[in-house]
Structure formats: structure tokens, C-alpha cells
Amino acid sequence: MKTLLKKLLVPHHLEYLALDQDFLIQEISLQVQRFADCPDEVVAGNDVRIPFPELVGTEEILIDIFEKRLPNFELKAMTRLLENGSRLYFDMYIVEFTNDENYQRLIIFFQDVTDRMALEQTLVQATNEMDILLSTLAATNNYVEKIITSMAEVLLVTTASGKIKKINQAAQDLFGYSESELVGQQIDAIAAFGSSLQAVSQEESQQLQTHVEVICTAKTGEKLTVSFSCTAISTDIKGISGPLPAVQDFVYIGRDVTDRQRARKRQITQYVATRILSASETIKKAIAAILPVICDSLGWDTVELWMPESGEKLLSETKRITAVSDPNLLRCVASWTKRSVSIPKFAEFTEQMTCAFGEGLPGFVWASGSAQWIADVTKSDCCLRRELAAEEGLHGAFGFPIVGDYDQDNSAKYVLGVMTFFSREVQCFDEELLQTMATIGSQIGQFIKRKQAEIALRESEEQLRDLFENATDLIQSIGADGHFLYVNRAWRQTLGYTEAEIAQMTVFDIIHPNSSQESLDIFYQAFTQKTVNENTLYPESIEVIFITKYHEQILLEGSISCKFADGSLVAIRAILRDITARKMTEDALAKSVSLLQATFDSTADGILATDRSGKIVTFNREFVEMWGIPNEVMALRDDATTIAFVLNQLKDPQAFQERIESLDDQPEAESYDLLEFQDGRFFERYSEPQRLGDKIIGRVWSYHDITERKQAEDALREEQEKSEKLLLNILPKAIAERLKQNETTIAEYFPEVTVLFADIVGFTPLSALMNPIDLVELLNKIFSGFDLLCERHGLEKIKTIGDAYMAVGGLPEPRPDHAEAIAQMALDMQAEIARFNASHNKYFSIRIGIHSGPVVAGVIGIKKFIYDLWGDTVNIASRMESHGLPWRIQVSETTYKLLEHKYVFQERGTIQVKGKGAMKTYLLIGRK
Questions:
Q1: H or E segment to which residue 94 belongs
Q2: Three-state secondary structure call for residue 585
Q3: What number of other Cβ atoms are within 10 A of residue 516's Cβ?
Q4: Beta strand 845-859 with 888-892: parallel, antiparallel or unpaired?
Q5: What is the CA radius of gyration of the chain?
Q6: Close Cβ partners of 220 (under 8 Å, ≥ 6 residues apart)
Q7: What is the C-alpha to C-alpha distance for residues 256 and 175, in angstroms, rounded to an integer?
Q8: 154-159 sheet: strands from edge to edge
């Protein structure tokens, strides 16, 4: 060991071992045994792997170091458990050593690292604890952030100077600002004018302020009432060099109490309005007191009361310059404005204006009979005072009707007046406020109606005194002993007793024992048993039979009331109505109902009644027989089964079903349609709603078998079509339509037409040689071809006379190309004759004459109508044909001038025309 120590400079805190190439210990340091697993085995000559089992498996590494292929090797943090229970930590460093004499050894150095390991473990533990704390802090921050985000209340965090540092989602939702818009702003930026949020944090008790209500303004301009609590948070932060100055923030927690405040204001307003109405003696005093209370309590700036002439008379005269007495106009009869609000032009204009039904906000409320809201009148087309409102700073408005007795059919009749409110701020729609004001409007309306009734009552006291005497009902008052205290004139006239007779009789003298038992009991208990008192339950209505002076029985019904004094019965009063005739009517009605049912069952139409949901209610026998529905199916009363049976018989079941469904959506609609059956039958189906008073309770379906009528109508229609076709073959369509309108004489002047006459040359001699039937058939073929040409060219055939054919262009419907159409017709007629000759081996030729000019056309006579032409134009056209040449189309000079630019002509020259003298004519050759 000393030899090695001389060669090595080993630090004093290291121990070592020297090994040969077989891993046998050659030298050891003094304290190296304390690192061994078996200290006693650390002796020279022993295998080093026995005391240090950690080296087992490292043989190849040790050899590589020994042979200098590897410079060194380390084993870190080896552990030994000492006898005292403590742990020893050490590191092993293995290197190769060769001295000058080629003395080669493996040196293993041992370093005690127990203290270092303890320090590292302490640092690791501290680091782990710090990580846990940071993770916990992050989780806590995340948890707190979630709480803040999910809070329903508004949360604002500010600096001591009032600058906003943080807001939660509820604050963004309430005020309408994003977080970026508010952070960095002063907190008073969301406070309304005249309010301050920062003042909440400056109260004496800064640690906890609760329920401080502040008026705030949302981004939209809406005013919000928010109840805030404010808490000051002081934070002492200790730095490395010492504690830092304390930082103080303020946390504002707010709850939106706008709805609660509004509800409280509405309740107060309704309560005060009720108190005013109950305490006011007159309508004028009530209106004067209630307008400022409602307007001021609700936070509006001005209020107006609009009423028609009938309502205006209830109040004092206004300052109106021009008197208006139209009952269909609303006038502002009262108004009130806050002292802090100046709207002179608006108020002056309001005093002088009127509103018609549906005109302006008052008129619209009057017409609709319901409350209306305008967020900003300056942007509303229905506000007549929009420009004045904009000039004087009025924006929000609403109005509600003052209603009396409800009339569903005509809202204008029950609206007594309209109250309108205006505000200098844009007001968001408040449905609950409108509901409250509708209630107040109803209260005011009832108050007005009640006061009107009181006035009417005072004015009609004398009339009411006469009412009993002149009433048609029988009115009586019976004393406690059963004698009559009072009966009116109708009572005396109906029963026939004199006043003297009435004074001597009791009610039991005239009441018939067949009266209702309930009526008899109350009279016996009151007048015989004396058991009726204020706690006795007696019927509100009775039905009795009274016996007249002439021993007739009168059936009466009515109401009774008992009069008590000091707990004792003093009188029973009754108002009775003679229902004898009604009873007889009811009996007759029952008979009528029975007759109606019999009629219902025996009618030839099938009847089906359903309720509003479409469920079958009733049907008659004919309905079942018409549809052939088995009795067992109808007995089921199952709509689906019945409908399925019906649908299977129809050609178009889908249309049938769709019609039923459409009427379900239109309960008030009436319906008619035609049903076609697969077996060829036809039913007419009628339907209309079943009403009970004004209420629709179901639908009645009527089915009528019109199969025979339909067949007759189809046959008649077919005959009519034949007659129509025959008529159109005789007359032009326009003329036929006029004749069907019963025009007896039809004659019209046409200034410009072209007339054509055609004649088959040599046909007359031929007719003497041919069989008449063959002759007619031959003519029919030729003229049928001409008819088709007329139809093709839009011309009107006038008539045929023997073998002559007459047609005209330009009537009955005028046309500018009448001459061209006739010219083309003439050319086509020549071609048609040529075609006929070729196909029938004939040698007919045709002679055609044409002339243009005015004619008179019409129908004359009352039998065998014919549409004919008259005038010189017809005569000249006929002469053009008769003086013409075979296979030639001769036209007058007039027609020539109309066609010379489009057709080729050959001048024939001047010819003598019978009745006309010399005329220049032309022969039509063809189209250019």
C-alpha cells in the first residue's frame, strides 16, 4: 500500500483498492473496509467481487479499462445500510494505473457522498413541495376563475383609484360591453348621469358595503338599477429585500334589481292609483291627482289623457282655440309634465291637435284597444309629433287604453280614453309595465263608468220609482205574516185581483200546491214555522204556480230576497216573470225537435255531423245507405274505420281527405265539392260550420246523390256542344255570341273589306246530266276544300249559291291585310280545283272575281239565320266573277291598287260591266 501511495496522490477524503488483472485485491487504503458489503473480506488476495458485489457483471468493462480500451468507469450512489440503521452513500471510480516499471493495476476509488446525497434529497423534496404548491395555486386560481365566470352576479375588480382591472361574464352580459372595452376604464363609466359607483368604495365602512343601489347605463343606453356590495382587499407582499407596500383593490359584487325596482314602482303606482280613485269624489279630481302620481312614480317625464267628446265633457274646459265637436276624434283633455322638463312647443301643439281613429299613438291605441310601446318616437312613422319630439328631446313613449265595459266585436265602443307617456330617454319594451298600466286603465275606466253610473243613478231616481210600477215583471213584497205589502201593476193585471182583495189575502191563498217544493218550503218556513233568519240558506230563484182571480193557473219564475231587521224577517221580496207562454213554447219546441229528428232521419240527403276535432257526432239513415257502410262499422263510432271504408269507394280519396283537413284549419269556411265514385256514381258534398250562438261547435256534412242528374247534364252538355258547333258552322263566332245574348238585329258597317265570288264553269249543264245525290256529293267535296282554305287564311265564308262560292276578308274582325288574304285564297282555289280534277278525272274550271270596298254585314230575320253582306262592293265583286274568264282571277282597279306591290297582274283593260258601265280590270297571276 505504501508503494502505491508513493506513486499516487490520493486526496485524503478518498479510499482505494488496487486490483490485478484477475480482480484480486493487491493493496487497500486504511478505511476502505467501511464501504464493503463484507468488510472482513477486504484483504489482499481476495476476489474484489466478494466484498463489493456491485462489481459482479462489470468484468468486461474492467478488462476494457485494464487493457486501456476504456479510460474509466463510475458507479454512483451506492448504498450501505449501517448497523445503527443509517445509510452510507458512496461513489466508485475505476481507472488503470501503470508505473515506470510497467507495474499495471486497476485502481478503485471510493468517495463518501452521504452528506451530498442528503442535501440533494432535501433539495428534491423542497422542489417537489414547491411544484405541489404551484399546482395547487394554479388549480385554485382556475377554480376561482370558474366561480367568477359562473357567478350570476356582476363582479368588478378595480384599483384604489377606481380603474377597472377585471370583470366577469355576468357583467359583460348585463352591461353589453366586452372585457376589453371596460378594463382600464374608470368604474363610473358604467354609472348613469348623477350616479357614482366609486363613491360606494369611499364610504366610512370600506371593508364591507352591501345593498347600495346605483343607476347604471348599459351599452345600449338602457338604464339599469344594480345593488352593489363593495369589499376592499389589501395585499401585503414580502420580497427578498423586505415587505413591499400594501396594494388595495376593490371588489364590487352587483345584482341586477332593475326588474325588482320596476315591479316595486309598478306596485306603488297601482296602489296609489287605487287609493286616489277610491278617495276621489269626482272624475276631474281623480284625473288631476292620478296623472302626476303615475308619471312621477314610473320615472317618465310627461303624461297626456286623450278622450273623445263624451269624455271631454266630464272634465273642465281646455284652452283649445278651435272647437271640435266630432265624436270620432280624440282630444288631449289633461296633461302633466315634470318641472325639470321644458317642452313648450310639444305641449302647445298637443293642446290644439286631434287624433282620428287609428291616427298617431293615441288613435292607434284607441283603434286597437290595447297598450302600445314606442322605443323612440323620433324614429317611428306612427307618431304625428315626431319632429317636435325630436326638437325638444323626447324619445320613449307608450300608451294604454282606459277601458269600460268590454265589447269584443267593436273595441272602439269600450275604450273611454287613452293615456300616453313620454320620456327623454329611449325606453326598452317593458311588457310587465304595459300589463300594469292596462290594469290601471281598467281601474280608471271602471271608476269613470262607476261615477257615470252614480250620476245617472241620481238623475233617474224618480224613474226608478216608476220602474216597479211600470215593469212587465210581477213584483211583490210579502210581510212576515204572509200578507202582501206591495204588488205592482203587472202583478194586479196578470192575476186580476183588486187592491182591496189583495189586502185581505195571504200568499197561501193564491199559491198552487203543485208549485216547486223548494218554493213551498221557503214560504212555509218563513210564514208558518217562523224559522227563517239571516243564516238560513234559501234559493235565489223560485218557480211557483199562482191562481188567478178567474181560477187560471199562471206559471211564474223569478228571484227572491229576504229583508231582515234586528235579526228578524220583515219581508220577502220577489220579482217574478210569467213563463206560462214560454213553457208552452218549450213544449212546442220539444215537439219540433222530435219532428226535426224525424225529418233528419227521413231526408233524401245523407247527413253527417262532426265536432270541432272531426269526431263523428251523429248521422242519419240515408248517410249509411248512400255509402253502404255496414251497421257494425257505424256502431264502432271509430272515425278512422269509417273514413277508411269511405275512401275505398272514391276515385280520388286523397282529394277527399285533403278537403276535410283543409276545413279543419278553416272552421268558419263553407264548402262544396263533387265526389266521383269508382262505380260511376256522383255525390254533391256540402259542408258548413255548426254554430251555437257565435261559437262554432262542429261541422255538418250533406251528401246528395246526383248520379242521374249528372248523366242528364252530360247528355244535355253534349247536345249543347253539337248545337254550338252547328251554329258556328252557320255564323261567325262573334256574331253567334251576340245572337246568344238576345240581340235581335245585328248590322255593322265595315269600311274596308275584300269580297270574293267564285263559280265553277260549265257546272250548270253538267247538273242536268248527273244524279242529284252524286251532284251534291261532288259539290260538297269541292266546297269543303274551299272551306278549309277559308279557315287557313282566316277568312269568312258567307254562303254558296248553287255552284257559286262567296267569301270575304276583313270582317267580322277587321284586318289590314284583307286584300292579300283574299288574293292568296283565290290562287289556292285554282290549285284546289286543279288537284280535284287530277284526283277525280274531271275537267272543271273556275272563274273568280274580287273587289274591295265598304259593306254592311249582319243577320236579318227570325228564322234560318244567315250572315250576309250588302252594298255596292258585293255587286261589283259579283260582276268581276260573272264578267271574268275561265281559269282567271279578275279584280277591280281598287283591289289592284291594294295588291300591286306584292302580286303580279295582267291588265285586261276596260270592260263593260252590267249596271256599272266601263270598268278597268286586271287578272291576278301570282305572288311576286
A1: strand 87-98
A2: helix
A3: 15
A4: parallel
A5: 60
A6: 176, 428
A7: 10
A8: 164-167, 154-159, 247-256, 223-235, 209-217
16-30, 163-177, 525-539, 591-605: which range is least confident on average?
591-605
**Cell 317611428 appears where?**
380
Best-predicted range by mean pLDDT (601-610, 855-864, 914-923): 914-923
What's the predicted TM-score (pTM) here?
Answer: 0.38
With a CB cutoff of 8 Å and minimum separation 6, the contacts of 546 are: 495, 510, 511, 512, 553, 554, 556
Q: Say yes or no to pLDDT of 637 above 90.
A: no
Q: From residue 65, give the alpha-carbon distance in Å to each of 59, 75, 514.
A: 10, 14, 140
What single-letter amino acid sits at 913? V
Question: Residue-wise over 896-906: b if at least 16 C-beta within 10 A, else e?
Answer: bebbeeebebe
3-state DSSP assignment of residue 294: helix
The secondary structure of 44-81 as a DSSP string is TTSBTTTT-GGGTT-HHHHHHHHTTSS-EEEEEEEEEE
In order of 593, 594, 600, 601, 620, the CA distances from 597 in angstroms are 6, 5, 5, 6, 9
The single residue listed with the C-alpha cell 245523407 is 606
Closest CA to 352 of 333, 378, 365: 333
Position 162, amino acid: G
3-class secondary structure for 709-744?
HHHHHHHHHHHHHHHHHHHHHHCCHHHHHHHHCCCC
Q: Are 474 and 508 in contact (CB under 8 A)?
A: no
What distance in Å separates the CA atoms of residue 103 and residue 90, rounded to the nearest whole number?
28
Give pLDDT, residue 243. 57
- Give Cβ neighbours of residue 640 (< 8 Å, ≥ 6 apart): none
Which residues share a beta bridge with 75?
92
- Examine the pLDDT at 754 and tell me if it is beyond 90: yes
Other beta carbons within 10 Å of 191: 19
Residue 48 confidence (pLDDT): 86
695-705/796-801 β-pairing: unpaired
- Grid cell digits, residue 369: 284597444
pLDDT computed for residue 155 by the predictor: 85
Dist. CA 607–CA 699, nearest whole Å: 11
- pLDDT at residue 758 greater than cutoff 80: yes
Residue 887, sorted as left (phi over 0), alpha (psi -120 to 50) or beta, turns out to be left
pLDDT of residue 123: 86
* Percent with pLDDT over 70 in the chain: 89
Compute the average pLDDT of residues 633-658.
81
Q: How confident is the model at residue 412 (pLDDT cuts 50, 70, 90)?
A: very low
Pick from 384, 282, 389, 287: nearest CA to 334: 287
Q: 61 exposed, middle or buried (CB, 10 Å; 0-12, 13-18, 19+)?
A: middle
CA neighbor of 388 nearest in space, from 427, 354, 345: 345
**Identity at 639, one-letter amino acid code:** D
Q: 428: closest CA among 291, 259, 212?
A: 259
Q: Rounded CA gap, 71 and 420, in Å?
A: 104
Q: How far apart are CA 896 and CA 917, in angstroms?
A: 19
Specify the DSSP class assigned to residue 188: G
Alpha helices, H only, 460-579: 461-470, 489-495, 499-504, 517-527
Please provide residue 312's backbone torsions phi and psi, each rounded to the nearest 5 degrees: -65, -30
**pLDDT 10s digits, 875-903:** 999 999 989 999 999 999 999 999 999 99
H/E stretch holding 824: helix 818-840
- 558-567: long-range pairs with CB below 8 Å, 24+: 558/473, 558/474, 560/522, 562/526, 562/532, 562/536, 562/538, 564/533, 564/534, 567/533, 567/534
| φ, ψ dihedrals at 193, nearest 5° | -60, 130
